[in-house]
């Protein structure tokens, strides 16, 4: 079965550079979530999109932005990178059912290292 | 915060034993999910239990939910070395998901 695809899997950037992470949800999933997981930390919710509109916002820095495109893939844009941005970034998708009783399916993650 | 807290933070058992992990949360939820994560790898969905369910089974996994105590437990029976991983609970309220701090399980062959 198709899973959530994230690219790239690994990314190395220098401080103050910009990074773009991509997420391709499972077909027919219309909701995408982004999470950041620092070393030894639990995943922290960043932002979510439903039907190409931002639906919820968590602890996402102002330096980050994201969008969902017409084909439902999503991109997380990170500017003015800082050392503390080094983390595993997960994307998850889910089909929206009534009452938000849905499961999230996670991608393998993109490991971002900022040097 | 809404985040679940899990205990124990670390658990080490012998292969074949059962492992029980607990998760507590603070506010009303739609559902609660358990995930596993191997070191440095992605999150793998294990099981979802809805707020109106009390117990759910999937293979060697058994999950309970007590909404009156705002807690859930994950039981892994007949553990295997391959079960070694971190286990997170995640609660859903509205469209946000909140992860607990995780339990690091080590199964010794």
Model description:
The complex is a heterodimer of chains A (115) and B (109). Chain A is mostly beta strands and 115 residues long. In chain A, 0% of the residues lie in helices and 50% in strands. In chain A, strand 4 and strand 5 (44-50) form a beta hairpin. The termini of chain A are far apart. In chain A, 39% of the residues are buried. The mean pLDDT of chain A is 88. Chain B is mainly beta. Chain B has strands spanning 5-7, 10-14, 19-24, 31-37, 43-50, 55-58, 61-66, 71-76, 85-93, 96-99, 103-108. In chain B, the strands form two sheets. In chain B, strands 2, 4, 5, 9, 10 and 11 form a six-stranded mixed β-sheet that branches. In chain B, strands 1-3-8-7-6 form a five-stranded antiparallel β-sheet, with no helix packed on it. Chain B is globular and about 40 Å long. The mean pLDDT of chain B is 87. Classes of the chains: A mainly beta (115), B mainly beta (109).
Topology summary:
The complex is a heterodimer of chains A (115) and B (109).
Chain A: E1 5-7, E2 10-13, E3 19-24, E4 31-37, E5 44-50, E6 53-57, E7 64-68, E8 74-78, E9 87-94, E10 105-106, E11 110-114
Parallel strand pairs in A: 2-11
Antiparallel strand pairs in A: 1-3, 3-8, 4-5, 4-9, 5-6, 7-8, 9-10, 9-11
Chain B: E1 5-7, E2 10-14, E3 19-24, E4 31-37, E5 43-50, E6 55-58, E7 61-66, E8 71-76, E9 85-93, E10 96-99, E11 103-108
